[in-house]
Amino acid sequence: MIVRVFEDRISLSRAAADQASAAVRRAILDRGCARIIAATGASQLDFLEALTNAETSTGSGSRCFTSMSTSGLPITHPASFRKYLLERLIHKVGIAKYHLLDGSGDPVKSSAA
């Protein structure tokens, strides 16, 4: 196992973004596209900033998915995961195909169906 220690979260985020960007580029070269499951939250801000500022854009060959959604919030709400990913990743790198879970409905009504 390789263990790397970083001075701060910015250098960690940049290293993680470099590795992620390289993996996405490899997938696009090998298979014509890459599928990305993106995380949200304050812990991802520096990573997503570094990833979207990478010299090589990987957006056009990428397809983004989310693994969770905020329940009962419209996409316009500041805490919406969909809004977060659209603003911080999808629109910044030009991901044309994305599949975001719609959490705007009433969770009580949805679970009764």
What does this structure look like?
The chain has 113 residues and is α/β, with parallel strands linked by helices. The protein is 44% helix and 12% strand. The protein is built from 4 helices and 3 strands. The protein has a 3-stranded parallel beta sheet. The mean pLDDT is 83.
Task: Pick out its properties.
113 residues, alpha/beta, 3-stranded parallel β-sheet, 4 helices
Give a nutshell description of this structure.
The chain has helices at 9-31, 45-52, 81-93, 107-112; strands at 34-38, 62-66, 97-99. It is α/β, with parallel strands linked by helices and 113 residues long.
The coarse overall form would be globular
Helix content: 40-55%
Tell me the strand order in the biggest sheet: 1-2-3
* Alpha-beta content class: alpha/beta
Mean pLDDT: 83
Total helical segments: 4
Unreliable spans: none
Topology pattern, helix = H, strand = E: HEHEHEH
* Gap between N and C termini: 46 Å
Strand content: 5-15%
The total of beta strands comes to 3
Rg, nearest Å: 16 Å
* Main beta-sheet annotation: 3 strands, parallel
Any chance you could write out the topology, listing elements then pairs?
Layout: H1 9-31, E1 34-38, H2 45-52, E2 62-66, H3 81-93, E3 97-99, H4 107-112
Helix pairs in contact: 1-2, 2-3
